[in-house]
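User: I'm preparing a small set of examples for a lab meeting where we compare how different chains pack in three dimensions. I only have the primary sequence for this one, and I'd like the structure in token form so I can line it up with the others. Please keep the answer compact; I'll paste it straight into my notes.
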Amino acid sequence: MNDFVAFGSHNFCLMVLLLAFSRGMDFLSTWVATPNLVLEGNPIAKKLGWRWGAAVNIAISLGMAFWPATAIAVSTMSVLVAARNFQSAWLMRTMGEERYRDWHVSRLQETPIVLYLICLAGNTLLTAAVGVAVMFFSQTVLPVSSLIAAVAPLSIGMGIVGYAMAVAFYSMLSVWRLRRVSPRKTQPLPTAPAILVSTAALKAPLADSCACETGEFPGK
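Assistant: Understood. Below is the structure token output for the 220-residue chain.
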């Protein structure tokens, strides 16, 4: 797991390409989902921004390329994170970052914390179980002559477990931040009987208007 490859070697270049692709997918998925980084869960990445974040990632990727096991594990995590981002990126982009954040916070506030933690545990523990299984069975593979082929199965398993841990950590971090802020006290909407709009009003050229209004809050 600590095998070192020489700079400029075939394995080094291969790891650089792998890291460039995986980190690039992570960046692309993040940009599609939250171009202004409003929804970025990593506080360090959010503080660095796009320009400094890209520079730091390039430097780290070049450094990791010397150790194939580490490079493969990080690449596995990055690809899984990118896939998770793309899953909801379309919704984040179409709703808008601020609106999506408010909507997501509202859903969290309405969800019992125990239910949320159970679902989070089911998500992360099952994913981690797959990674543990890959790591366990990687020890039974036939001997191989290539360094990459030798470390890849175990490193992929480690990357899957690392991804599950990252999801659990940043999800818990967001919930902890949310619970630190006192929930906004909202007053329930009045339950006054609805007033049916007259037929003449329905014939008016107001295509987007609602045909039912409450007495206390007209037009709401």
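A couple of notes for your slides: Residues 44 and 112 are 29 Å apart (CA to CA). The longest helix spans residues 147-180.

User: Perfect, thanks.
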